[in-house]
Amino acid sequence: MPLVLQPATEADAVRSAQIERAAYASNPFNPLLFPGPFPEPPAGRNPRAEEMAKQLHGDPATRWLKVVDTDLEATEDNQQMIGFAQWNINDGSQLPVRSRTFGPGTNAEACEALFGGLHRLCAKHFGAIKHVHLSLLHVHPDHQRKGAGRMMVMWGVEEAKKLGLPASLCASEEGHSLYLSCGFRDIDVQTIDFTKWGKPVDHINYIMALGL
């Protein structure tokens, strides 16, 4: 299991989108947030990969990372890649963050409460300061708990230290312990009651920081 951390490029966008989809496939809130049906994408197109690639090229603050398992066979569809992360170096050069919109197939009200709420909490705590932010972190379920996630988190921790900036992220309950072990601490909590959308349980996320 020799894992290698490498910069990711646009060529990794499709595999990144596949890993993201697999990582969230078993999330019990997905059917409520994204009930479908979704428009059929044009043949040969991957809208999520295209969206990610557009951000990579359009925002100078964006940094992509991937973890490759060199024990796996190299394939044309990039199966050696088992993890993906996006860090944003918010040093003043980044583009203003726009509010997300939620299209056909989504529960727009629930998505706005969750993702819009997280956006507002992050803006409250970090909007006025330069910092390093973990925007995305996904490891394929077949390769979790092998250290790939920690490698990508610690890249950002070391980058923040090198730049003399604090680091921030939003953590799910599942990922919370990993980030605590990497030195992050809770500075706020988002709790959303999903009863009105058919699941009588709270959805919890943690706003976390290091060096703040």
Plain-language structure description:
There is one protein chain. The radius of gyration is 17 Å and the shape is globular. With 212 residues, it is of the alpha+beta class. The longest helix is centred in the middle third of the chain and has 19 residues. The chain has a 7-stranded mixed beta sheet, sandwiched between helices.
The average pLDDT is 93
Q: Quick one: how many beta strands?
A: 7
Portion in strands: 25-35%
Strand order of the largest sheet: 1-2-3-4-5-7-6
Elements, N to C (H/E):
EHHHEEHEHEHEE
Topology:
Elements: E1 3-7, H1 13-24, H2 30-33, H3 47-58, E2 62-69, E3 81-90, H4 108-126, E4 131-139, H5 148-163, E5 167-172, H6 176-181, E6 185-193, E7 202-210
Helix pairs in contact: 1-3
Supply the key terms.
single chain; 212 residues
What can be said about this structure in brief?
With 212 residues, this protein is α+β, with helices and mostly antiparallel strands.
